[in-house]
Amino acid sequence: MQKEVKEKPRYAVVAAVQLASVSDIEFEASLSELRELAKTLGFTIVRTFIQKRSSFDTTGYLGVGKRQEIHHYVNHEASMAEPGYPDGCEIEAILVDHEISPSQARNLEKEVGCEVLDRTMVILEIFHNNARSRAARAQVEIARLGYMAPRLREAAKLAGPQGRQRSGAGGRGGGESHTELDRRKIRDRIAELQQEIVAMDVERQTQRARRQERQGLAGVALVGYTNAGKSTLMRALTGSEVLVANKLFATLDTTVRALHPESVPRVLVSDTVGFIKNLPHGLVASFKSTLDEALDASLLLHVIDASDPGFERQLEVTDKVLEEISAHLVPRLRIFNKIDHVGDAEAQAECAAALRAKYPDCVVMSARRPDEVARLRQTIIKFFQQGLVEAELFLPWSAQQMRGEIYANCEVLAERADGEGAFFEVRGEPNVVESLREKFALLG
Question: Which among 3, 36, 116, 202 is least surrounded, fewest beta carbons within 10 Å?
Fold first, then answer.
């Protein structure tokens, strides 16, 4: 029997500067988010270093004293026994809760003695690890290359004068440095990837138009903060085996499934990438492109973690991004999910009442409770049935093989028969009902 190989744990510390303009609640929420991002990347955070300052240190982000404190911990204290880590910890990286300049990162790395990953790099690495589709991979690569380009100059400083190539023909001119060559390669690669994305966008728009032509516009998009339970709700509504993981950005690619059991009209549900505060600038374009499904949807389900004390801040982030891509014009239903994580039954009831009072017409539920999922499903169907018409269709006995078309395209409310054929009381989209009526009239 083959012995399972246990992965070596990866340990890291977090460092953050709290500026005077940032409240304690906002600061702690950001730190908590970074720890969750670290978890997604495979790190265990063993210590957090905080410093209050009026501004970031231009040399190494943190002040000199705090950098020395972290150096001592990383190189001496961490290797000793820690509570919960009896064998000590070998610190691989320090994660910084801001985007810092290349020179700040280089200086901090030299002084602390381990790799430095700022918030932007952490998110880029997660996106890089989790992107699956061609479009997502290309967009993430563009963001990573854009992030790396200005950092090549700092790497060249460490390389010294050897970084410059010999001159060209005739021995004249300074030649082109390795850094300049690398930066040119990055520019060329970004241009190549952008062309690929344009081609993929055209293809995706064509596929979406065909799908909408086939299925109509009954589309629902799940939007909201990452880790709010969107994938769990998607799975509950559609019966599909989509990935469900308690990690930020567990999935980046849009998943589209039909509402199950199928309804009339047939409703397609799509899950989009989760939102996050302070998304790196280089990822904004690629992030928004994954929200195309939200613009095409007829209804947005804005999923919010009711058990998260900072949900109001997360709600604001989502509202802001939706407005930026004009998706705020799409009808929206607020879903306060994970109510089962809010204390006991009494606490849940109080929380639900408070949410309904503050956000009228919202839905308070748990995606893990089948009865509450069923009620949400009926709410969605009711939304799409607003424009449906009720009518009677007649099908002669000689064409009974076409009964399946009626049931596939309409909701049959009643059925009766006489000597000439069957009469169906149906509810359906006006154009679909009229098309069936004309087809059956030709049979008569």
Answer: 3
Whole-angstrom distance, CA of residue 126 vs CA of residue 399: 57
Query: pLDDT by residue (tens digit) across 96-145?
Result: 999 999 999 999 999 999 999 999 899 888 888 877 778 778 878 888 88
Residues 275 and 417 placed together within one structural domain of the fold: no
Mean pLDDT of 145-158: 71
Q: Are strands 299-305 and 332-337 parallel, antiparallel or unpaired?
A: parallel
**Last-in-domain residue among 345, 363, 384:** 384
Whether 409 and 353 share a structural domain: no
Whole-structure pTM value: 0.69
Q: Is residue 326 domain-resident?
A: yes
Looking at every residue in the chain, the average pLDDT score rounds to 82
Token pair 């409240």: residue: 23
**Helix, strand, coil fractions of the chain, as percent rounded to 5:** 50, 20, 30
Residues 347 and 258 in one domain: yes
Q: What is the CATH number of the domain that holds 347?
A: 3.40.50.300
Look at residue 82 and give its three-state secondary structure: strand
Structure confidence at residue 166 (pLDDT): 44
- Domain range for 336 is 216-384
* Residues 312, 354: Cα–Cα separation, whole Å: 13
Residues 209 and 318 in one domain: no
Confidence of residue 171 (pLDDT cuts 50, 70, 90): very low
For residues 140 and 115, membership in a common domain is answered with: no
How would you label 25-42 residue by residue, b for 16+ Cβ within 10 Å and e otherwise?
eebbbbbebbbbbbebbe
Computed from CA positions of residues 225, 229, 230, 231, in that sequence, does the dihedral angle turn out positive or negative?
positive
